[in-house]
Amino acid sequence: MERCETLPIPRGWFAVAHSDEISVGEVQKVHYFGEDLVVFRTESGEAGVFEAFCPHLGAHLGVGGKVDGETLRCPFHGWGFATSGECVDIPYAKRIPPGVRAGGLQALERNGFIFVWWDPDGSEAWYDVPEVPEALSDDWSSPDRYEWKVSAHSQELAENGVDQAHFQFVHGTLAVPASESTEEGPTRRTFAPIEMKTPRGDVNGGIETHMYGMGFATVRFTGIAETLEFTSTTPIDDGRAHVRYNFIQPKVDGKDPEGGVAAALIRDIVKQMNEDVPIWENKKYLPRPTLCDGDGPIADFRRWCEQFYPDSAG
Ligand code: FES
Ligand SMILES: [Fe+2]
Rounded to an integer, what distance in angstroms lies between the CA atom of residue 280 and that of residue 260? Predict the structure, then answer.
């Protein structure tokens, strides 16, 4: 796609499904990174992700393929593949041809998402996506979920967080909170302190974002409505991205919070996303933008992103 020809598909951990979308024994087709993939869950509960086409004669493993114990069986001739991709059974052969394997991708389940490690150059995962304890806690609500498919490159979406000036013009935010960012290899932390005026006085809060590569971030809002947002952004191809927002909040009297400031906060973040989409879908990526002193750390952020572009992409 011409609008973003200079940005390839990044590598790293990317969500391909919500965990509860793939139950035990289920096989689903998905399309990410410009590739057909299948996601499945074995009988012991392990999630597996394969490139879709069987190495035998090319059947689509997600169209009629079945989970059989700890393997995924091809619908065409019944070959069975372990979650690693290794072929472990051919029902009608005496010997399995050496080295035969489906395109098994490294998978990881965290915070209610199934992630895959995507790198066309074939590297092993070189960073982790941590489990956030609140995601599993009974004291926090079940996730309130939102999804978008956006015709824009993942980096353009992620850049929004450091683009301080747009908040005023796109989202109508009055004061732009100055934020500070620190990086450590593939992770990046940003904190923006926020002072809120409430009928009961000023409340000091903040927005703390942790990015784990370009595919996943946690955003913690503190102050009047404590909220944790899990954001996944997965390239569908080099011009589109699938975004998932999962919000959790502390339960009130053992129940998910309803209405009030807690709901208003989520509504506002979703509204902001909807306001950003038309800008992203019609903008052009400028590799050498003209920036001014009031802009956020955009150049800095882009430098951080470079580590996620595969060497083979030049
Ligand atoms: S094509 Fe998959 S087993 Fe033959
Ligand atoms: Fe925005």
Answer: 31
Between the CA of 298 and the centroid of ligand 2 the distance, in Å, is 14
Residue 114 Cα to ligand 1 midpoint, Å, equals 26
The more confidently predicted of residues 180 and 68 is: 68
Q: What is the CATH number of the domain that holds 67?
A: 2.102.10.10
Which residues contact ligand 1 via a Cβ below 6 A? Answer: 54, 56-59, 74, 76-77, 79
For residues 75 and 10, membership in a common domain is answered with yes
* Ligand 1 atom 3: residue of nearest CA: 77
Residue 171 sits in the same domain as residue 255 = yes
What is the position in ligand 1's atom list of the atom closest to the CA of 77?
A: 3
pLDDT tens across 156-197, in order?
999 998 898 898 899 887 666 677 889 999 999 998 887 766
C-alpha dihedral (244, 174, 257, 212), degrees to nearest 10:
30
Which atom from ligand 1 is nearest to the alpha carbon of 61? 2
**Contacts of 175 by beta carbon, 8 Å cutoff, 6+ apart:** none
Number of domains in the chain: 2
